[in-house]
Amino acid sequence: MKTIMGKVRQSMSSENIRILAIETSCDETAAAVVENGRKALSNVIASQIEIHRLYGGVVPELASRNHMEKMNQVITQALKDAHMTLADMDAVGVTYGPGLVGALLVGVAEAKAISYACGLPLVGVHHIEGHVSANYLEHPDLEPPFLCLIVSGGHTNLVIVEDYGRFRILGSTRDDAAGEAFDKVARAIGLRYPGGPEIDKLAREGNSQAISFPRARIEDAPYDFSFSGVKSSVLNYINQQKMQGLEIPRADLAASFQHSVVTALIERAMLAAEEFHIDRVALAGGVAANQGLRAAMGKACEKRNLKLYYPSPIYCTDNAAMIGVAAYYEYKKGVRHGWDLNAVPNLKLESV
Ligand code: KG4
Ligand code: ZN
Fold this sequence. Notes:
Blueprint: E1 2-4, E2 18-23, E3 28-35, E4 39-47, H1 49-53, H2 60-81, E5 91-97, H3 101-118, E6 122-126, H4 127-133, H5 135-138, E7 146-151, E8 156-163, E9 166-172, H6 178-188, H7 195-203, H8 228-243, H9 250-275, E10 280-284, H10 291-303, E11 307-309, H11 313-316, H12 321-332, E12 335-337
Parallel strand pairs: 2-5, 5-6, 7-10, 10-11
Antiparallel strand pairs: 1-12, 2-3, 3-4, 7-8, 8-9
Helix pairs in contact: 2-3, 4-12, 6-7, 6-8, 6-9, 7-9, 9-10
Bound molecules: 5'-O-[(R)-(carboxyoxy)(hydroxy)phosphoryl]adenosine and zinc ion.
């Protein structure tokens, strides 16, 4: 049950609104304290990467169990780093979807318990709204409307952020998400999990023009993406090289693959900026940490006189500060969730 309250509860201690935010949708156990939706007073992340690396990807049950183990320590640290206690908080914000159900449940149950015990309002947050909101942390001048390219491990969307938490979805991926394609290609050339940052590093040593990989275009859907074609083409290339007993030029392959994905992302973003007369573009999600994407998008925007925003790498990949920002803007709108808040693994991003 989601309610919109007529009157927003104000902080008793000061005019500042402080939110304790919790994020457990995948393999990072994270908590943060965010002030007035723009300032991270703390941002604690217990990464499970080393655990899942052994298996080449996230093992859902291990993720849930590790969230369970780390959750309270991470929250305690986040409050400590912010030099605050639960008594200084005005609300609890938590990711309730999309993500792994067992992982989400740990965060949601924790947020409900704190909210109940401390009498704090509970605000459930859409994980992708969180990624977009990460941009507000370090760019005080950024306000909607703007164009946002969301590129994470599970999502690829091009949206117009019409207002805080209000999105007009222009395009989405038809198959793999951008981060998923990075991870699969990385795995095929023997790089460790998560593959995106590994490809990013290796690509810097390679020639992006060395191998030509296809870029899909979807009829009548100029803003939709498809990455399964380029992924298959990389896998075919690897097989052909192996069959001929040839070595795989890993750096050139990484650079060429990354170039193909980055170009597809930029083409659509630039087309949308032109069609919708938007002069501010933001990047969001784990793949927004990609150096190749940041640099090429920077050039494309500069050429067209567009202002480009992206979060620091630590706020691109999963973190709770971004959830605290999104929760703040939902809280300001009067959104409150009830005790029936549940994890919604396939929570959709609504389009206006
Ligand atoms: O946003 P995120 O942390 O989690 C999801 O919500 O999915 O994104 C994780 C994804 C992974 O696929 C990871 O490989 C990718 O982001 N990623 C990168 C980079 N850093 C993380 N991809 C390309 N280059 C990077 N530097
Ligand atoms: Zn994410």
